[in-house]
Specification:
This protein is α+β, with helices and mostly antiparallel strands. About 20% of the residues lie in helices and about 25% in strands. The termini are far apart.
Length: about 70
């Protein structure tokens, strides 16, 4: 039985991500291959998340704007 009001979680696969944008203060944005943008929710350790995303992007040849 499906509970009404339960939010759907959208899953992303790495091939769908065209670019990761880290230069906006407080926000991390994913540019997707279909031209849309996905704003990731705010987290307590933004720098840790940004660092992890940069490492994965480097391994998968995904361009990163901003970051270290």
């Amino acid at each position: 039985m499906l509970v009404l009001g339960w939010p759907r979680v959208r899953r992303y696969r790495w091939p769908q991500i065209d670019r990761i944008i880290l230069d906006r203060p407080g926000n991390i944005v994913l540019d997707l291959w279909d031209g849309t943008h996905a704003l990731l929710p705010e987290v307590a350790d933004r720098e840790g998340l940004a660092s992890a995303l940069e490492k994965v992007a480097l391994a998968r040849a995904i361009p990163v704007r901003g970051g270290k």
